[in-house]
Amino acid sequence: MLRLVVLALAVGDLALLLAQAGRDGAFDMRHLLAPAGYTGAYVLLLWYLGKRVQGGLADPILLSALIALTGIGLAALARIDPAMLARQLRWFWLGVGGFLVAALAPVWRYVGRYRYLWAASGFLLLLVTALFGVELGGARSWIRLGSFQFQPIEIVKILLVFYLSAHLAEAKPFLSAPRPGGGGWSERAYLGPLVVMGFLFVFVLVAQRDLGGALLLFGLVVAMLFAATGLIRYLVAGGLIAALGASLAALFFDHVRIRFLVWLDPWSYSRGYQIVEALFALAAGGFSGTGFGRGLAHRIPAVETDFILALIAEELGLLGACGLLFLLAVICVRCLAPAFDPALEDVERLGALGVSLLVALQAGLIVAGVTRLLPVTGVTLPFVSYGGSSLVASFLQVGLVYNRLRASARSEAGRGSGVTQWREV
Amino acid sequence: MVGFFFLLSLWMGYWCVIQAPYLSTHPRNPRLQLVESKIRRGGIYARGGEALSVTTEAESGFVRSFVGPLSAAHVVGYSHPRYGKTGLEAAWNRYLLGVAGGSQLARAFYEAIGWGWSGWDAVTTLDARLQEAAAAALAGHQGALVALDPKDGSILAMVSQPGYDPARLAALLEGQGEEGSLFNRATQGQYPPGSTFKIIVLAAALESGAIKPDRLFDDRGSVTIDGRKIQNANGRAYGPIAIDEALAYSSNAVFAELASELDPRALYDVAVRLGFGARPPLEIAAAAGRLPRPEELESAVARAEVGIGQGALLVTPLQMALAAAVVANGGWRVEPRLLVGFRTPNGQWQPAPPVQPERVLAPGTAQVVKQAMVAAATWGTAKEASRPGVVAGKTGTAENPHGEPHAWFVGFYPAHEPKVAVAIVVENGGWASQVAAPIARRFFAAVDALDL
Question: Is the pTM of the predicted complex or chain greater than 0.80?
Fold first, then answer.
């Protein structure tokens, strides 16, 4: 299993070297700095997890996918602009640190206890952003503190996962009646706060014009409700509400309508420029890609955030882009493991489920947007897109799940199961 | 969850692989512009081999210049690094760049230009001599002339006046040229057809069986339909008159009455079959005109107005020439075409797809309409177009809100073995018999002189 981790690091390093050499047209000794910073951070993390933490290397497959994915993400940014890479590397170190903290801190015992604290602070964060936030890229979704700015939605996502897992852990039996309303008064008592909370969040996000965020959080509520109860009716109802909401938004808000029109026919609108350029980039990449530095996708506006996939698809081809989706799929699937561990608490199992769904939904939304399957909603590609808040939050999310993967590994090790072999790597 | 990511990957593959040949050579793709400067663009030639637009090598790189008759500039269009592309230069761009093959993915293409890439030469259906004759015939007028070979739809000449000089494109686009000179009136100009539409009304009446060719009408000089009075142009009453005579004299009274008697659906269907109300399938920009729907033709007045080519009806000269070609062909419709074929750099010849004629009028209908058009061009309103070789034609003087009526001539020549079907429109030209018909005669004289 150690070999897999080394392979992942090699992939990341190679991508970083090729991306920089491709950008500058030739190799330069300075190009070694970023791979060193990247490798160093992970070697320290792995060393600490392996030597100092009980069950530290609980899931080397998840770690390897994370390592390779962030390496390719940094490489894509290195391809665009060295200064951008330097800034993102600093966030990356913070993210790795955050991962370690989230993986070690005894967070989960508090998650179930303070559910309304999570919900209220999430809501407050959004409200503060809506009132005092700054507008960047069309959405009023940033908070500025001095020279430092971040997107509170990234923290809100985690708080919402906390709230939902705590609430659903308690509410699950009451919401699982075979027929709607079959759970009687308590069903309504448990569904009520959930619906109110979901709509409050979405409402504030719509006020901020952060459509991607609104769709993501709404999707998370619906997906978790469905996953916790296994009842299709929540999925159907959620889908209908989303469709209705989207149609109403398209009717009443010009900026939403434009996004729909551009999606239906990007060729006829000047605002369709980004998506048209992204499709050209995908086509130019073909199956195996042009190679780093030989594409034109780096000229697409917002390529470093929303349209990073277009750059990867052009320069690394369908092969590279599918590889990236594969790594994301591995992370999502491995994050599901705690959800099926009977030794864990309900809150923890639902929390792991929530993180997995969150990453999958977010990746799906932006990949679908770039490939014209859905209108572009402006969310980041987890672990890949440029942006500190997004990267650190993604690390924190997976770190929280890793926390429970460790717990599973320890409890199984205690029972003498086969998982112990992972300790020996 | 694995399935979810798998489906997303498949969808990416759709763009990266299946749509790639199309997207990689899309005119708006900046990758194409990047490599374009390094490709020797193929030339565009007239059917006789005369160069129309060619690329030459100068110190600064490749230079594209238009070298054909100026009147062909609308069809050929321009390819300008700053102002983009129009006409055939835009429509055939991927062939002229030599990147039309499905396997030409962008990357192959980046590498290919390393070894000096040449585009394909294109041969158009335009006949350079006839094009110049057409421009000369129309000289001094504002309007358009389209001439096509009725057998295969090949466009032999297409003139739109005022024209422009592609060498002065920059000045023109900065607003120093003659107003509307870039506009191709032959395919995009939409006009009421006036009496030339009687050809279509006659065909519809015969096709639907509403009249027999020997039916006599009573022409009293005017007719009142639902309170609307429609008069003959010169006020004359022709008395008892056969339908072919009515067409030759261009009797509004007879055709208004005839159209008002027709089933709206029958009138609409024949017009659609002849190509009205739809954009002709052509490589360059072309308008659809406007054909009232059967519901709009419910009232007898609306039909009567369409019967004399007025009302809500709009057509393009190209559409009229195509309709004339159907009559010339004895009822077979052909699609218009501008391409003879492409020649690849290694000498391979890629011809245009074969002609696929479609029967849209019964042979008997076409025969009666043809006889009536011969009568019109022999002793009727179109007699100013007459030539020894027998002309078939119809004039039209179309009322319009922009001043003097538009003068039309639509027909084909020689009537019994047609070499060309033409449509001529002179904007605000006045009486068609005196304005449009003589232009047709001069053009037909050139057809004879050139011995097509």
Answer: no
CATH class name, domain B129-165+183-338+356-450: alpha beta
Instruction: Using pLDDT thresholds of 50, 70 and 90, give the confidence band for residue B67.
Output: very high
Instruction: Determine the pLDDT at residue A421.
Output: 42
Looking at chain B from residue 160 to 189, which residues have their Cβ under 8 Å from any Cβ of chain A?
none
Q: Enumerate the domain spans of chain A.
A: 108-417
ipTM, two decimals: 0.88
Pairing label, strands A148-150, A139-145: antiparallel
Element holding A179 (H helix, E strand) = none
Choose the closest CB to A283 out of B15, B28, B34.
B15
Q: CA-nearest residue of chain B to A336?
A: B1
Among A224, A275, A277, A282, the residue to mutate for chain B (most B Cβ within 10 A): A282
pLDDT (tens digit per residue) in A181-206: 776 777 888 888 888 888 888 888 88
> How far apart are the CA of B11 and the nearest CA of chain A, in angstroms?
7
In chain B, domain spans: 129-165+183-338+356-450
Question: Which of A69, A318, A332, A357 best tests the B interface by mutation, with the highest count of B CBs <10 A?
Answer: A318
**Residue A381: how many CA atoms within 13 Å on its side-chain side?**
33
Share of chain A above pLDDT 90, in %: 58
Contact A408/A343 with Cβ under 8 angstroms?
yes
Residues 6+ apart with CB under 8 A from B263: B208, B210
Instruction: Measure B89 CA to nearest chain A CA, in Å.
Output: 20
